[in-house]
Amino acid sequence: MSDTVLLNVADGLARITLNRPDRLNAFNAEAAHAWADVTGEATSRGDVGAIVVDAAGRAFCAGGDVRDMAENMGSGAQITELAEVINVGIRALTESAVPVVVAAQGTTAGGGLGILMASDYAVIGADSQIGSLYANIGLTPDLSVSAQLARAVGERRALQLVLQDRMLSASEALEWGLVAEVVAPDAVGLRADEVARFWLAGAHGAYGHAKRLIRSQRERSFVEQLREEARSIGAAFDTPEAQARIRAFTKRSR
């Protein structure tokens, strides 16, 4: 297995680590395929109740490796193919019923923004910066940036980010609603782990399906979403975990 994207699973927690620190964890072909494989495994394992996505080195992810594109890819068709491979991993995370937290230190740019938004909860450092920067090299957003950015921050702000070379500060990213928390730079990984372990210590199955309901609601009409909510809560009620927690709650309420 490639060491460009690592997977470690222990005690219900899957840790996915982008591991090309010398290239700011930008994706080349090897990393793209490793990402698709690792995310697929993490989201399909029955022993995983939460996922942390983090990165080695001083940056989270710079998107695609532009130098590798220039030196090793001779056509736009190859770029499209690379993006589609990375999209497999993005879909695995966003479509799964497993909650995902990202720990994003340093710079997040280009397609790295799409990787960040594939999480359900984002923790960044106080010195972090987040931007688009595609147009700086004549390219357009990929890796779910156009699909997810406007939903996350609103259309006007999304346009501001992709139509300028602006890098958001950590405080701006928080104010825009792009991330959930800003912490000290050396505490990013620790706080992301705390979030994941909170899920694991609680009803992680219910958290995961709550995530699924929110993430997938755009695929259904309002009436269909109400039906899916009703079906989902009924299915949750029948689980041993819910039955045990309901019994404990009623005992405390007496």
Largest sheet: 6 strands, mixed
Give the helix tally: 11
Mean pLDDT: 95
Topology pattern, helix = H, strand = E? EEHEHHEEHEEHHEHEHHHH
Q: What fraction, in percent, of the residue positions are helical?
A: 40-55%
Q: Between the first and last Cα atoms, what is the distance in angstroms?
A: 54 Å
Global structural class: alpha/beta
Say how many strands there are. Answer: 9
Indicate the proportion of strand residues.
15-25%
Shape: globular
Oligomeric nature of the chains = single chain
Uncertain segments = none
Strand order, largest beta sheet: 1-2-3-4-6-9
Radius of gyration: 19 Å
Fold and architecture overview:
With 254 residues, the protein is an alpha/beta fold. It has helices at 29-44, 66-72, 76-95, 111-117, 145-153, 155-162, 170-176, 188-201, 204-216, 222-237, 240-253, and strands at 5-10, 13-18, 50-55, 100-104, 107-109, 121-125, 129-131, 167-169, 181-183. A 6-stranded mixed sheet has the order 1-2-3-4-6-9, with helices on both faces. A 3-stranded mixed sheet has the order 5-7-8. Helix 4 crosses helix 5 (145-153) and helix 9 runs antiparallel to helix 10 (222-237). The longest helix is centred in the middle third of the chain and has 20 residues, at 76-95. The radius of gyration is 19 Å and the shape is globular.
Walk me through the topology:
Layout: E1 5-10, E2 13-18, H1 29-44, E3 50-55, H2 66-72, H3 76-95, E4 100-104, E5 107-109, H4 111-117, E6 121-125, E7 129-131, H5 145-153, H6 155-162, E8 167-169, H7 170-176, E9 181-183, H8 188-201, H9 204-216, H10 222-237, H11 240-253
Parallel strand pairs: 2-3, 3-4, 4-6, 5-7, 6-9
Antiparallel strand pairs: 1-2, 7-8
Helix pairs in contact: 1-3, 4-5, 5-6, 9-10
